[in-house]
Write a structure and sequence with these properties.
Keywords: Hydrolase. The chain is α/β, with parallel strands linked by helices. Helix content is 44%, strand content 18%.
């Protein structure tokens, strides 16, 4: 994976698909490196020039100490696009990635063609702040297996936990968590969590004029439905789609439908 210097950090990224096709920037969520996009790239790279980065604080990108901000992380990606010679891209942001995408569209509107905001929020209420604070505490005090269990409990729906095959897969994921070749250090997660807690774009979302698909799961306990509805209502050109019986990781719980639905939407917007 190549690296570029942007906004004071070295950012690792990968390009997939047809390099002459329309660019698609994919921004992942808290704790997750860009490689988590892999099951979606299998579809997206058929249609787009996919640019996937590791966010500041995770993977093979620099992990400076201190609190990050979604403004700062949006500027990271603006610099990445500039360095790649990409003037405008379609953007998909997942969870924390959706907050970065919002700020990219607000701070660098000329760089964003259309957007898909997955399980987004415009601001944190006290519950959301408490969850992010608890994530930091869990990272500080739990081993990798138990920290992974907590994240799984946050992001998977009851329907998934009731499926014995999914439960077995989740158990395997916990057992192999310690094998991550680039584990996120505590200070990297803390930096990202502060960006999540302090993100508040509600007053500026009306500035976003690009077509936007807001998409999520109705059973998401991490970023509940009211958050997706608030984002949708604040962006004039936004539409909302929510999966039944799906949680924060609705895009894996409905993998084939999600991949096709989002690809088709982006191809038409």
């Amino acid at each position: 994976m190549p690296v570029l210097e942007t906004n004071g950090i070295k950012m690792f990224y990968e390009e997939r698909g047809n390099l002459t096709a329309e660019p698609l920037l994919l921004i992942m969520g808290i704790t997750a490196p860009g490689s988590v996009w892999e099951p979606h790239l299998a579809e997206f790279e058929k249609h787009f020039r996919c640019i996937v980065g590791d966010n500041r604080g995770v993977g093979q990108t620099d992990k400076p100490a201190g609190a990050y901000s979604t403004d700062e992380m949006a500027d990271d990606y603006a610099g990445l696009l500039d360095d790649l010679g990409i003037k405008k891209a379609k953007v998909i942001g997942c969870s924390m990635g959706s907050t970065i995408a919002q700020k990219l569209a607000i701070r660098h509107p000329e760089k964003v063609d259309s957007m898909v905001l997955m399980c987004p929020w415009a601001r944190c209420d006290n519950t959301a702040k408490g969850i992010f604070q608890h994530i930091m505490a869990c990272k500080a005090h739990l081993n990798s297996e138990e920290f992974t269990r907590y994240i799984q409990l946050l992001i998977y729906s009851k329907a998934s936990w009731d499926d014995e095959k999914v439960v077995a897969d989740l158990a395997e994921g916990r057992k192999s968590a310690h094998l991550d070749p680039n584990p996120q250090p505590l200070h990297g997660l803390v930096g990202q969590a502060h960006a999540c807690i302090n993100h508040n774009a509600l007053a500026d979302l009306h500035k976003i004029t690009q077509k936007t698909l807001v998409i999520g799961g109705k059973e998401d306990i991490f970023t509940p439905v009211w958050m997706a509805e608030e984002v949708t209502n604040a962006i004039s050109n936004a539409e909302l789609f929510l999966y039944e019986n799906a949680g924060h990781i609705f895009h894996f719980e409905n993998l084939e439908d999600f991949n096709k639905r989002v690809s088709d939407w982006l191809l038409n917007n």
